[in-house]
Design goal:
The complex is a heterodimer of chains A (306) and B (318). With 306 residues, chain A is mainly α. Chain A has 14 helices and no strands. Chain B is globular and about 75 Å long. Classes of the chains: A mainly alpha (306), B mainly alpha (318).
């Protein structure tokens, strides 16, 4: 089952663009054009960043300015009240346990997905065995099965294990959700590591597992980062399964917690809600910015070489 | 699937992935490596899939959840689903919505990628960071922010429209009418999906050899021809992947629609397939009927991805 892979693997390969062709002639016209494109880019950048800016802006505005006839494009009188409300004044569901649950489940999925996917990708790339092709085909097809379709049977299964509201159950469900993609991705990266390197190590007296560990594993860093990013995003952002499995206030993950701000009976406290959204989004944004630079090729190299 | 035959290593050119013929621990190694993943997938994906099929041919309501045996009803749930107008309305709505989102995402994503190619270093960085911010936003948080932007009372959109048009837009509800509900939903989904598409296509375009483009230019091909005849064919595989993935993601969109409904949409007129299954099953307790819908949904998904799977299988020589 695939759990709505919202942001798959960040792909970055800002190599110098090949459009240099156009640039050699007519410098004056070119300069005018490039200023024009620069303006378009600036407008586009503003459009893409605006919602994020608006979230941060609102989160620092006092309530009386948020709900008022005037638009405040800037936090004139910045306040941390909304953060205080979001984190500590939540009668419905407290922030700290939700943060704890999210951290636990994310860590669990991240580590387990990387280890399991590493093992499995070795099995399907370095060995020929009966059922290999069937397994690879299965994980390709399973990725296409919508998690939404399976929510009822997954819910009933977890319920029958008496594991509703537990981090372990949610973690295992997420793990099954990310494994097909992570195995598939890592498989491509393992294929990129020449077997000869392992064989050389084995001739030098390494055992096969040791050759994997000492030779192949270190060369898989980009693949493992890609795998990790995907697992992290899924576990941190996933909403639907968490909604049905983690229903008790103290077991909620951050996305489910964030939803409790909206109640049918009360008007939404937009300031606190935006503060809560910032708290959920910041770790992802930071994580993205950190790993971004290390990703090269990724999906593209996989897609192009085919 | 037929299994791969064990290859005896021919002398001289040993095939890279090798297998030992004798029954040795080395032959067990792949299974040992595969076992943990296999266990997780069989239990947490395989079993629920079977369970979904089982539920879909039984009458399973709230009472069955409490222990009343579930009677076997054959294909009744399927017949009920396929003759239900609401199911077809939801399906048609989901497909139209998906098509609009995919076309918009791919078109604008392509334009953004081409723009990235033309920009200088500074502006490229500025635009990349903005795209990255949109991309990194968790879908739920993004949805809530957009809900606030389109808020009926104090949303920035109503504020701006009021000051631009001079008429009062305050109090205008964007989510009550299904059409503008989906316009908002599409805007948010496309906004969130463009960065991935744009970055991927940009990375693909940068791999088109400069000489080829130059040659095309010398032959008199304008920017348009170069794009259609050189760049697009070169990244064709990327387009296939992006289109198929976008179709899958947009067809099964759950979080965004669910949250937007919570902010102010009319559920009966705005549900998409994923949300519909949730309503029928989790909310109303018609587990059997909802499972039949889920099976149909899964079949639709597999049909959409069949081409992609086939191409992949062929290329990977599985």
């Amino acid at each position: 089952m695939s759990l709505a892979p919202a942001g798959t693997v960040p792909v970055v390969a800002p190599a110098p663009p090949a459009a240099g062709v156009v640039r050699r002639r007519r410098p004056a016209r070119r300069r005018a054009a490039s200023v024009g494109w620069g303006v378009v880019a600036a407008l586009l950048a503003a459009a893409f960043a605006f919602p994020v800016y608006w979230m941060v802006n609102t989160s620092f505005l006092p309530t009386n300015l948020i709900i008022g006839p005037e638009l405040h494009l800037w936090p004139d009188e910045p306040t941390l009240r909304n953060y205080d409300t979001a984190m500590f004044r939540q009668e419905r569901s407290p922030f700290v346990p939700a943060l704890g649950n999210s951290l636990q489940v994310t860590f669990l999925v991240l580590v387990a997905a990387m280890v399991l996917a590493f093992f499995a990708s070795l099995a399907v790339t370095r060995f020929r065995f009966r059922g290999r092709a069937a397994f690879v085909l299965s994980i390709l097809v399973i990725q296409m099965v919508p998690g939404e379709a399976m929510m009822i049977s997954v819910f009933q299964m977890v319920d029958s294990w008496r594991l509703l509201n537990t981090v372990v159950a949610l973690g295992v469900v997420y793990l099954a959700g990310v494994l097909p993609f992570t195995i598939w991705t890592l498989r491509g990266f393992v294929n990129g590591v020449p077997v000869e390197l392992e064989e050389a190590a084995m001739i030098d007296g390494c055992s096969r597992p040791r050759a994997f560990w000492r030779v192949t594993f270190p060369l898989l860093a980009p693949g493992l980062v890609a795998t990790g990013v995907f697992a992290f995003l899924q576990a941190w952002n996933e909403f639907m399964m968490a909604l049905i499995i983690m229903t008790r206030p103290e077991s909620m993950t951050l996305p489910v917690w964030l939803r409790t701000f909206q109640q049918a009976t009360k008007s939404t406290d937009w300031g606190a809600l935006m503060a809560g959204s910032v708290l959920v989004a910041v770790p992802v944004v930071v994580f993205f910015l950190v790993v971004q630079g290390r990703m090269t090729g990724g999906l593209v190299s996989g897609a192009v070489k085919g | 699937m037929s299994s791969t035959v064990l290859r005896p290593a021919p002398p001289g050119a040993a095939p890279p992935p090798r297998a030992t013929r004798a029954f040795t621990p080395a032959r067990l190694l792949p299974w040992v490596l595969l076992a943990p993943s296999l266990a997780v997938l069989v239990v947490v994906t395989g079993y629920p899939l079977v369970r979904m099929l089982w539920l879909s041919v039984h009458e399973y309501e709230r009472a069955q959840l409490l222990g009343v045996p579930a009677p076997f009803v054959g294909l009744d749930n399927y017949v009920a689903t396929l003759t239900d107008e609401r199911f077809w309305a939801v399906t048609a709505r989901s497909f139209v919505f998906m098509l609009v989102c995919v076309v918009a995402t791919i078109t604008v994503g392509t334009l953004v990628a081409l723009l990235l190619m033309r920009l200088g270093r500074v502006m490229r960085l500025v635009l990349s960071v903005a795209l990255l911010l949109a991309w990194a936003m968790p879908p739920l948080a993004a949805m809530l922010v957009w809900g606030w932007i389109f808020d009926t009372q104090y949303g920035v959109v109503n504020h701006l429209l009021t000051s631009v048009t001079g008429e009062s837009w305050m109090g205008h509800s964007w989510l009550i009418s299904p059409l503008s509900f989906f316009a908002v939903a599409a805007l948010v989904i496309v906004w969130g999906a463009i960065p991935f598409v744009a970055f991927t296509l940009y990375a693909g375009f940068t791999q088109v050899p400069g000489e080829v483009l130059e040659a095309a230019q010398l032959d008199g091909a304008g920017a348009r021809r170069r794009f259609l005849d050189v760049q697009v064919p070169y990244v064709r595989t990327i387009y296939v992947v992006l289109i198929v993935l976008s179709m899958i993601w947009d067809l099964k969109v759950f979080t965004q629609i669910f949250v937007l409904q919570g902010i102010g949409g009319v559920t009966s007129e705005t549900s998409t397939l994923g949300v519909y299954i949730y309503e029928m099953g989790m909310a109303q307790g018609h587990y059997g009927a909802a499972s039949a819908i889920a099976v149909v949904f899964t079949v639709l998904m597999l049909a959409i991805s069949a081409y992609y799977v086939r191409v992949t299988v062929k290329e990977e020589q599985l």
